[in-house]
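Exercise 7. Given the components listed, write out the predicted structure of the assembled complex. Treat all entries as one system.
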Amino acid sequence: MNRSAPRSIDQYLKQLREELAGADSALIQDALYDSEEYLRAEVAAHPDKSESDVLELIASTYGAPDEVADAYRDTEVKVKAAMATPRKVPNSKLGAFFGVFLDPRAYTSLFFMLLCLATGIIYFVFAVVGISLSAGLAVLIVGVPFFLMFVAIGRVVSLAEGRLIEAMTGVRMPRRPVYQESALGFWARIGEMLRDRRTWTTIAYFILMLPIGITYFVIALVGLCVSLAFIALPITAVCAQAGWFGLSGVEVFSNAQPEWLFESGFAIPILGVAGVLLLTSLMHLARGVGKLHAMFAKSMLVARAAPATAHVAASGAALAAQ
Amino acid sequence: MDDSNERKFQKELNGGLVGLVLLAVLAKTDEDLYGYEIAKRLANANDGTSIFKEGTIYPVLRALSAGSLLTSRIVPSYSGPPRRYYRITEQGRSVLAEWKLIWASTRDFVDRFIETEPST
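Answer.
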């Protein structure tokens, strides 16, 4: 893309954002953050020069926005491939089914499902208290600052939730906060925040996390309890048979249906096998839920690249008109 | 046209070298360094101009950190957003040792062809 060289940090970041349009939204957020760190440090290191003089030389040292954008795109792809631990490709369907026990993501996703109850309650309380207090205080002078503080804290919490999700499911989430255009005035920034779709989807995500968290927790807990109990059954039976402890008087299968199964001696091993199958399915389910949830969180918590570029184009036009 | 060819070749060469150089710089020092500081060290070691664009080191730093070859911590800064300081890990040092060997053998291999080229 041919365009005039950026003359200010804000212009540079805008061009970089345009160059990265279509890339992973989490990557864009990180690239803008890194560039801002460098550019501000470079400007601060040359107090005798103006910002536009420093920016003139940036293309030869730091790189023009299109070069930097390329570097982020390339590195992301290459390093991900190089750093990923080579996964053994299971050579049979059976191997693929039970191979889930070797995948650390399945365990972390299962843990994430259990954790979601706790985080879900916290997010829900945070969002509901924030909204209701903002509404209640709206008539007072503290109402507006309170609401803004609530939204600002919400953004920090959403970044933390993103880090948690990336750690648990391995899906790329932002590692840096959203770059705020500091050139805008105080009121313009507030207006921007209220118009930003992400502000509202973040709050919706916090509220939705309570029912979602309860569902995840119940599925994970019930699945674990039932499958582990089934697996423990044959072990317990063998121990009891060996006389290590007495189960006399305990009718494990009293009134269990169908009778032909539970009257026979096969019931215990069959249930044990069923437990193993159930546990394996639960691991698969957890891994899938982890991936789906990460996609959901990304769509709710991370700004989409497209509207951001539209907004950049609009503000660029406004700058040009001045 | 020549210029873009050179640029392309340099870029392709830099692909893996940036990571090696960054690990080596961080292995040499006891301090934690942040991106801008590392970029300036590289440039100063080469008479003020870096072979690769300084913008390309940030994504590599983050990638190395994600691969737990580096650890990082965030420190607030007066001049802009908080800075991320990096330090090499034990795993990073052992990876660096391996990469050094690979680099040495690659360099020797390439030199063997380039240096025996008959000079006209």
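Discussion: Chain B has one domain: 2-115. Chain B has a mean pLDDT of 82.
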